[in-house]
Amino acid sequence: MRSVDLTARARIRNAAIDLFGREGVNRVSVRAIAAQAGVSSALVLHHFGSKEGLRKACDAYLVETLRGGSAVDLGDTAQLGAMLDTPELRRYLARAFLDGSTEASMFFDEIVEVTERWLGRGVDEGWVRATEDPHTRAAVYITWLLAPLLLHEHVSRALGVTDLAETDAALRFSRSAIDIFTNGVFADERVLSAWDKVGKDRS
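RESULT FIELD:
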């Protein structure tokens, strides 16, 4: 995204990704995008038709980038790490999830399905515990993975780091998360039993 040798269309898209991620789609004008890209507003509309068309192009570019190419399946949740290489894309993806764009919603559903299959293979191979509700577990797992993306500022502050995407900070956060996934937090089942009791009392 930082290359100086880009087509006008790519410069417009990158400017939109940056501004949409920082301020939200509704707060950014076509004129502001054109100014950052160094083109006219008319050229933005020529390439994308409207601001909504530009937003959809940004979403499509984001999903393709995270997949490693439009023809490549996600494979496993490790592909989510691609977003950490580009601050602009990281902000844009966080904003897209919060704004509820169609493409971001479809991508979230897709990675939950991929994660459910991945964890299912782990159950079959013996390195993942079985669960009564594998789909919900996959959704919760993805929520954990997205936490540093959506709450980047707050998690960074809590950990006393400037950028959670920086390698040492990311490894620190990830190590703690993996420890929780592997070893758990609670030493017995009293909290789980209390939670199950709430459900039984409601039925």
